[in-house]
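Q: Could you write out the predicted structure for this multi-component system? I'm mainly interested in how the pieces pack against one another.
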Amino acid sequence: MSGAAAAARAATLYVSMLTTAMLVAACGADPVAPDDFGGPGDGSEIPSTADESTFPNGTAFPNGTTPPARVGARHAVPTPTDLATTGGSAASRVAPIGPPGLPIRLTDGGCCVRPLWRADSRALWFIDRSPQGVTGLYSAALDAPGAPTALVTTTIGTFSPDQRWRIDLASGRTTLHRLADGAAFEVPAGGRSVSFSPDGARIAWQGSNPNASLERQVARIVVAAPDGTGAAEVAQLARGSLVDWLGADALLVRARETAESDIEVLWRQPLDGGERVEILRTQRLRNLLLSPDKRWLAYTVSGATDVDANGLWLAAADGSSPPRKLEGLFGAYRWRGAQQLVIVPFEMGAPSMRLVEVDPTTLAARPLTDPATQPLRIANGDWSISPDGSHAAFVSAADRNIWVIALP
Amino acid sequence: MGSPRHLARAVVLLAVATAIRSAVAQSAAAAERPLGLPFALPPGPATWLLGQPYGNTTGAFRQRRTTYGASGGIHFGVDLTAPCGTPVVAVADGVVFSVDAMNFGSAPHNVMIDHADLNVASFYGHLRDRSPLTAGQAVRRGDPVGVVGDPGLTCRSRPHLHLELRDLAHARKFNPVTLIEADWDTLALASSLGTGFERDLDDPRKWQHLDDQPEARVGGPILNDFARPWPPDVR
């Protein structure tokens, strides 16, 4: 046999084996999440100062009531008052955009990153610029997949959870706008975003000493009224941060045990002058996420010397029971309503990502998508769950557009 | 047509075509991204994960005139978080250019390896110990380079590998995502990308993806000093 013939035969054999392997894989069971995967990095050179992305409850955008203009169209820019609506979340879930688990493309042209859900879960909002040069917040509606996106406002800002306030950030300045009457209040947050309490009666933010090395960073947690009055520092945290509001009268905060320690401690910080209460402590705590009802905490541990500690954990937010590790299921996660944690398992090399849902009470897991028939690939870890829990949105790594999946 | 035999043949032909296309695609990808990862271990919470990506990160923006000011104001490498002592390996065959040349930064220890065939150099920063390698030594892809350390010098502060890819003059700095073969989309899932990339409101689509980041240059102009940045500077 000549060398060329041998090579051809070897190539044929290789292709045959590859084909067989592919057919077996295609007919096999759903992929199983590998053990001990997932968990975030520490972004160790990213300063701990808060920005608009730090506060999970401060990033929703308002209901859009103005008939939207299309990208590129000449239009009147809505005034801030146009955005003052009744606010709040939808009373019922939005109807599925398509069959459960089947991704539907909302935008084209690879337009957008970090989309945020409108509070009624009927649209996604994102920063973009039209061909005519109008930068603003644009909207893609669930009931019009593929339609041109619509300009909502040229004012870039974040919003309070009840969407009655817009938070404007300028260089070194933080201004809160009450949308109902247009009143504006500059608060002493120095250009940082703020986090609203669940009842909207207070705001909190964290300052830091940005010129210090990371090892010497101290977060100063300040609470005030939304008009900026009554500002008072409630905590100083070595290499710490404000995580979220635990209720109207308490914050969830974290810090290193000491500036030199790799042990991180999570506390309930009461605002009535009471003692800080420890919820948990662990090595190298990452990606804390409080459930919307403030009952559950999801977090990951990565890089801990106690190897068994590394992974994805669930804990009662009041510290009333020991944290539980999700054995064999790790990755990126978001809360779906108050009682379900949605996870994208960390499966390197898998042809498609998938969504899995875990009940924090029972730890029972169920698949939300089938990667064999519902392929999805998320870019930049950029995905979210609608406020009503009806849909997941993600930026596709394939085309950089926003896609939406109705969740079963 | 339509018999089970014809159907089976069609399925096999389709599978073969798909396999060939996949093999060709993989080969093309390998040519496009010729470097390997700097760890032999697979990623995970107990081994290593993507920390801060290369480029126009919000964290680098905040430090664009200080920490990152000497190379364009962006994060000019990729940070891979890992426990201290995690073995680091060479991303390609090459020759060691320097060991502990601190003009390259990334204390306490570093290594620069030239990969002349690929017109690129790899730089491994924040190593815990001085590398056993010596300048002029030939290395193969996957050979040990050193172990992960901590710029805080305690192994408790922020242990990670700072990996840079440069040209052979060591002046231009490239995005590792475009040169290292890896499942970056999945790695990004578990990173701290929540803070994302800084936006230029005059061109908000610019530099917003892992693989769409600008090249940096030692001593070059600050790339992310946007007139209308989002999020804006804090006081």
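A: Regarding packing and overall arrangement: Confidence is low (pLDDT under 50) at residues 7-29 of chain B.
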